[in-house]
């Protein structure tokens, strides 16, 4: 089958885990393909994904082959497949805009971005690269809070006629104005804000649904997250955290039926702990009432390598997006968005969204 040609904006930890994963599964088969939700989607295996264009603004990455750039600082995710052959695809200079928070410039270079002195890309330049590379799907992996940057790359995708997967909590697919633009041009989009394979949000949602089904009244809950990667350092600036908190909070609230008052729920990244690197530690507490109005509480600690945890979901989102391109579906892909994303345009329970994706893959659901 043809390769699925992707372009990536942001060559950070998540991109590193994704590209490592594509290579890692090349020599695997269905029986030993551990860690995948789907081995085959519409005939496409993980190894059928090919990076044809890449954009970043860090001088340690711009101009290098993408196979080398994914291992440059400040990337710190676990290396589970280090023998990545050269791709012949050099990382192009992207557009900075609000991609780098001012406070990031105060930290040691091993933790933060080092701006390239290359001339910033223009929309025309990025559109040209997308067209010349024959990219079919643009993955957005910009830092959280890059409102202007994400909109810039969304415009580039629209102009180039390229589908988009928005992996961060800047609302594009879940924004009516933007979703309409993709629908009018019959270009697929999946978004917003990728769920991890087994992360804080999916675990919190599952527990919240369990409370509801077992007749336990949830009264208060929090989800606190710490990590040591660039993403967590970026979110030390609380202004860049606004959309992330909305995305993660709504993902939990949507399961409850009756939403909790704002004072009784906190869901969001909490602090940057450098030595954790790409390991994310999540603390969940849930307080409620059982039979006879008797109180109970639950506490959970979850530790995961953050970027591989999301890459396993993105690898499915890419293949679902390819199916949409083949079937000429345009606009928001509601089923993949509901299952793969924290802040889709329409929220469903995870069991409902799972079935929707299965029906989408099989062709029973057009979306």
Question: Can you describe this structure in just a few lines?
Answer:
Helices cover 34% and strands 19% of the residues.
Topology:
Elements: E1 4-9, H1 13-24, E2 49-56, H2 66-69, E3 92-93, H3 123-132, E4 137-140, H4 147-160, E5 163-166, H5 176-184, E6 188-190, H6 200-213, E7 217-227, H7 230-234, H8 242-256, E8 265-272, E9 279-289, E10 295-305, H9 306-327, E11 331-332, H10 334-340, H11 350-362
How much helical structure, as a percent, in the residues? 25-40%
Distance between the termini: 24 Å
Number of separate strands: 11
Give the count of helical stretches: 11
Calculate Rg over CA atoms: 20 Å
| SSE string, helices as H and strands as E | EHEHEHEHEHEHEHHEEEHEHH
* Residue windows where pLDDT falls under 50 for at least 5 positions: none
Shape assignment: globular
Summed over residues and divided by their number, the pLDDT gives a mean of 96
Strand content: 15-25%
**Structural class estimated from helices and strands:** alpha/beta
In the sheet with the most strands, the strands line up as 3-2-1-4-5-6-11
How is the biggest beta sheet arranged? Answer: 7 strands, parallel
Structure description:
With 367 residues, this protein is of the alpha/beta class. 34% of the residues lie in helices and 19% in strands. The chain contains eleven helices and eleven strands. The strands form two sheets. Strands 3-2-1-4-5-6-11 form a seven-stranded parallel β-sheet, with helices on both faces. A four-stranded mixed β-sheet has the order 8-7-9-10. Strand 1, helix 1 and strand 2 form a beta-alpha-beta unit. Helix 3 packs across helix 4 and helix 6 runs parallel beside helix 8. The mean pLDDT is 96.
